[in-house]
Request: fold
Amino acid sequence: MKKITVNTIVKAPIDKVWQLWTQPEHIMQWNNASDDWHTPFAENDLQTGGKFKSTMAARDGSMQFDFEGIYTNVQPHSKIEYKMADGREVIITFEELDHHVTVTESFDPESMNPLEMQQAGWQAILDNFKKHVEKQLT
Reply:
């Protein structure tokens, strides 16, 4: 199956974007697709061969799941590649230009949900990330 791609432009320097993307205390603040979900737990060993895990949960307690994987390539301030626990692969690039950073995620879709739903969910999380970073700078 073809990868799904989402992206956003964050009005912040690359150092700040990288920091807020990779630190667990920040991941817990932006890693949700809608306000009725949250991330109560995150850990991140950001290095090639390192592992990451976050728990995404419905705020009403009705559902939760772990999102985890192993980093296959980490190039600071530039690229992160990882393989999820189910074997799907993700590539994230960070491109800085004039104090703006374009963050692009390409990922292998799963087979349970429609492609449009997966793209919309990942885009919503990326949009939350953009809001979180830009709020930190005001």
Q: What stands out?
A: The mean pLDDT is 96. The two ends are 41 Å apart (CA to CA). The first helix runs from residue 14 to 22. The helical segments are 14-22, 24-30, 115-136.
